[in-house]
Amino acid sequence: MSKITEEISRRRTFAIISHPDAGKTTLTEKLLLFGGAIHIAGAVKSNKIKKTATSDWMEIEKQRGISVATSVMGFNYGDYKINILDTPGHQDFAEDTYRTLTAVDSVIIVVDVAKGVEQQTRKLMEVCRMRNTPVIIFVNKLDREGRDPFEILDELESELKIDVRPLSWPINIGAKFKGVYNIYEETLDLFTPDKQKVSERVEIEDLNDPRIDEAVGEADARKLRDDIELIEGVYPDFDENAYLAGRLAPVFFGSALNTFGVKELLDCFVKIAPSPKPVVAQERQVEPSEDNFSGFVFKIHANMDPNHRSCIAFVKVCSGKFERNAPYRHIRSGKIMKFAAPTAFMAQKKNIVDEAYPGDIVGIPDNGNFKIGDTLTEGEILHYKGLPSFSPEMFKYIENTDPMKSKQLEKGIQQLMDEGVAQLFVNQFNGRKIIGTVGQLQFEVIQYRLLHEYGAQCRWEPLSLYKACWIESDDAEALEAFKKRKHQFMAMDREGRDVFLADSNYVLQMAQSDFPKIKFHFSSEY
Ligand code: G4P
Q1: Nearest CA to ligand 1 atom 17
Q2: Residue 476: left (phi > 0), alpha (psi -120 to 50), or beta?
Q3: Is 143 in the pocket of ligand 1 (CB under 6 A)?
């Protein structure tokens, strides 16, 4: 095996996603503990913006600052190199999460056993489904009272629209929680509430081993055997290919806080999760093992210090070997660039790196050259696609309040949009600029940053819209007719694509039934 294929095959690049509070941060921390990347629990600062802080702007700044450090967490586990890409917990930054999902090869979804599938989980799963991303589910907080595991499985299947297959099974729940039987490995782990230590393993031959009865009591042992029999009867054997194709999600149970069921999850994960896959560029499919380096920018993190308006562009290596100081072509501008100080993220530290392989993320210091979605190569013209924009949830007109600073405002808006902070639409009827976000917080972020980084002042004007949808049609006449009829509600996105602004669900439904030749898309990737 060549060095590069060896490096690729040992890489696992993934994200942990969940509805806020399900336990994403805790699970991430425990995985880092197993990887030796940290030594005590509590070392990982949560990147989530606590609910109490939503109106406290400086607190958000601080927390966003922390999230640079935890954006990518790389560590070695056995023969594997693991890269966990962090995603913001706060749903107002959901767009960031969607983009991060374009840079991973698989995901782990954390679900709270008491709450089941929640809204944010559903949305994130939709994004995974669009890309057929392989998904493993971790049902968390078994040490607390929660729902029946069979009920949870049914809910996962129906709500997340994916087949499921339990690979571990809990013995009781809440105060009576005794442990987890690992169906995949046929082992039994007993629960000992402890935030630092790994669980205790009971040596067993198979499910009929009397040592199970000794360990958990006869009644629970019987229930476990019945449950497993039921599972084996209802669920087909675990099919790794169905998992890799994104059709089947293995499910694990445990308690992240107590480090319980986490190692089982990790051990199975490294075995079955995919190594970096080929990536589809507009021009062709690119294999990770190709000799020439290529990669794309999936995230830009602004420096919150107003005196240094520098950013870090996060580049996912898609093929070949990335090398420090090598000349790479920035496809959008055609410029050749060299990077003297690229950083990688290992064991919680940001270090300058000399090389990186497919699946790795490299941080490149930048001052305004990069835009989300930009491709870098050794020369070949490639455009990586698949950084979707979704219809925002909230819309406001942005107005300049300082006529002397209109240039600064314009520049600030463009750069913030390049970073992917929000989406800009221009109403074709009145020429006004509309900013679309997924949450109120982003309006505050934009206003604050425009003022502090660009010296521009803006004010928001309310705009009541239900959705912005990208429209297209095979029938040019029908498209023109639609645009004419709806001219007051037509806008353009930054790429010059037609967007219909529907002010209510009713209006949207009427438009869909009145104009059957028009296709309405709720994401820009269609
Ligand atoms: P998130 O990143 O998905 O938002 O969730 P996070 O890990 O921050 O966990 C949310 C809360 O749930 C935290 O409590 C955390 O300690 C708790 N938690 C996580 N895993 C488990 C588990 O297995 N069992 C139990 N009982 N609780 C769990 P918090 O009080 O909100 O925060 P903290 O002050 O403890 O950090």
Answers
A1: 23
A2: alpha
A3: yes
194 forms beta bridges with: none
Instruction: Tell me the two tokens of residue 249.
Output: 């999600």
Lowest mean pLDDT segment, chosen from 95-99, 158-162, 387-391: 387-391
Mean residue pLDDT of the chain comes to 87
Q: How many angstroms is it from 140 CA to the middle of ligand 1?
A: 10
Closest CA to 12 of 360, 416, 346, 463: 360
- For residue 62 and ligand 1, the question of a CB distance below 6 A is answered with no
**CA angle in degrees (0–180, nearest 5) for 364-297-301:** 60
Ligand 1 mean position, distance from CA 22 (Å): 7
The pLDDT assigned to 485 comes to 94
What is the phi/psi pair of residue 382, to 5°?
-135, 140
Q: Is the CB of 361 under 6 A from ligand 1?
A: no
Q: Which of 17, 26, 120 to mutate to test the pocket of ligand 1 (most atoms within 8 A of CB)?
A: 26
Is any ligand 1 atom within 6 A of the Cβ of residue 255?
yes
441-450, 468-477, 505-514: which has the minimum mean pLDDT? 441-450
Cα atoms in the 13 Å half-sphere on the side-chain side of 314: 27
- Predicted TM-score (pTM) of the model is 0.84
Quote the tokens at residue 111. 């679900």
Torsion of CA 37, 41, 42, 45, to 10 degrees: 30
Distance from the alpha carbon of residue 141 to the mean position of ligand 1, in angstroms? 9
pLDDT-based confidence at residue 54 (cuts at 50, 70, 90): very low
Terminal C-alpha separation, the chain: 38
Interval between CA 30 and ligand 1 midpoint (Å): 12
Which residues, listed in sequence order, are joined to residue 110 by a DSSP beta bridge?
A: 18, 138
